[in-house]
Amino acid sequence: MHARRVGIIGGVALLAALGTAPAAAQQPVCAATTQMVAFADYDERSLTPASATGQVRVACDTTGTPYAVSLDAGTHSGGSFSSRVMTDAGGLYSLEYNLFIDSSRTQIWGDGTGATVIVSGTAQGAQDILQVFGQIPALQPVGVGLYADTVTATVEY
After folding, report:
1. Are residues 110 and 70 in contact, defined by beta-carbon separation less than 8 angstroms?
2. 72 with 81: CB under 8 angstroms?
3. Tens of pLDDT along 63-109?
4. In sequence order, what are the residues at sequence separation of 6 or more whose Cβ sits closer than 8 angstroms to the Cβ of residue 71?
5. Structural domains in the chain, sorted by start
């Protein structure tokens, strides 16, 4: 299997940057890009979690190519998927959040360890679009600022 890594970064959002993967002759080639998961302003007094969506887009040159997309825990969570963490620019404050594969936000998108899920698919055409569902739990006391995290998506095919 080949792997392609896509970094996701942002301020109270997740933004994409594309990496590269080796390609073998006569083998299918897949590439991935992402669309940012941008949370609106967070109100620490709200009883409702903040939600946002983004995308991981997988494009393979051969229809029917199987692939699997995993997400790491991010740079600030200490490897834990139970709650990913964004920090402000100064690193003084943190804001817990998570990324899910479903709109009901019950299945954590991760690397398959613990209770996390890897998204698998088969290339259907020019580009497969996988939705990323983000959520920040309610009632977190935080300082004013822009919060960011870096999550790496790995596409294996």
Report:
1. yes
2. no
3. 999 999 999 999 888 888 999 999 988 889 999 999 999 999 999 99
4. 8, 99, 109, 110, 111, 151, 152, 153, 154
5. 3-156 (2.60.40.1090)
